[in-house]
Amino acid sequence: MDKEKSFKKLKVGILGATGTVGQKFIVLLQNHPWFEISALAASKESAGKTYEEAVKGRWKQEVDIPESIRGIVIQDASKPNLKCDFVFSGLDAGVAGEIEKAFAAAGYGVISNTKNYRTEQDVPLMVPEVNPDHASIIPFQQKRRKWTGFIVTNPNCVVVPLVMALKPVMDKFGVSKIMLTSMQAISGAGYPGVPSLDILDNVIPMIGGEEPKVEWEPLKLLGDVKKDGFKLANIKISAQCNRVPTKDGHFLTVAFSTRKPAKVGEIKRLIKNFKGEPQKMKLPSAPQKPLFYHEDEYRPQTRLDRDREGGMSVSVGRLREDAVLDFKMVVLGHNTIRGAAGAAILNAELLHKKGYLKAR
Ligand code: NAP
Q1: 84, 134, 250, 334: which one is catalytic?
Q2: Are the C-beta atoms of residues 285 and 216 closer than 8 Å to each other?
Q3: What predicted TM-score, i.e. pTM, was given to this entire model?
Q4: pLDDT tens figures, 285-298
Q5: Looking at domain 3-156+341-353, what is its CATH homologous superfamily?
Q6: How far is residue 199's CA from residue 44's CA, in Å, rounded to a whole number?
Q7: Domain 159-334 has CATH 3.40.830.10
Q8: Cβ 82 vs Cβ 39: under 8 Å
Q9: Which of 132, 175, 178, 181 could form a disulfide with 277 if both were Cys (CB 3.0 to 4.6 A apart)?
Q10: Is 112 in the pocket of ligand 1 (CB under 6 A)?
Q11: Partners of 75 in the β-ladder
């Protein structure tokens, strides 16, 4: 009996279950060894419909809607009373602030994709391979806000592959400056997203609000956690973000300077051998190789490499010296998996293993 009890899966609710990220949560959580979906929520327009009815014509995944999900009746996300142990949030950022707060106050752990709480002084902005220690701020958050639940966020979908690729360099040599150009997939804009007449045969040199996030979030992620806040890393970052006509996968060209002298071969070795806490803990969604280095200088390529290890492994290639900063390289990450739903699921696995997420 006790043994059976210890294998009981945690029940999960998904806020924003009908959207691009919400759909990815549903696909990635099928057959998860620790978590099972028990509730789905979205806007008032979707509430009361079965999931199948609500996403009619806008289910955009390459697999069918899972049988166990089709008939679930969607609830109104503005009411924090879902039958589950914790929630993932893929809510529209315009409404996520109030809704996520209400869930945290009502005792739910909220594992969020949205930008609303990322810059808060008491909310972890986490990539488990990069800063798993930042979870230690949770008790301070709960005390300060008088919440029995909590909010943990994952970063913007460009920032995830960027900080993962730079983490081993940062640990060994320090990083002082970063300049990057992003080529971001259409799915990053949600559904229906960028109109086809804008993006076909085109590159759009502006993604509203993106560059400030890409220039700030790495400072928190690569910084230190204190008892009552975070100390930002001392790095100068300049980002230029572009929308390109790929479906999934954010492709970055990144130049950077190190604080201590380094050699191309040393950095390559660090990237190839990099492992973080999820790999050491053997978390279910952790890729074997969080960073995959491509020796073929025609790789990584968006279409060929975005799905490596189920979209959870970040590809790096073309590391070489740079005449302006010290080094340059290309980096590729799957935006809706490693940059969104998969990132949140890995955060939840880490938080469960560390004892922060339990049955309610
Ligand atoms: P999306 O496709 O537009 O989906 C938005 C979701 O929010 C839908 O489920 C929608 O429900 C729900 N929603 C909208 N208004 C609501 C309201 N008033 N009350 C309750 N629910 C409401 O967006 P997305 O691309 O999945 O992005 C979701 C969040 O993740 C955003 O904050 C985004 O910035 C972030 N994010 C996205 C990506 C990406 O690659 N797409 C990556 C990282 C982070 P209805 O269907 O009922 O309207």
Answers
A1: 250
A2: no
A3: 0.96
A4: 999 999 999 999 99
A5: NAD(P)-binding Rossmann-like Domain (3.40.50.720)
A6: 31
A7: no
A8: yes
A9: 132
A10: no
A11: 41
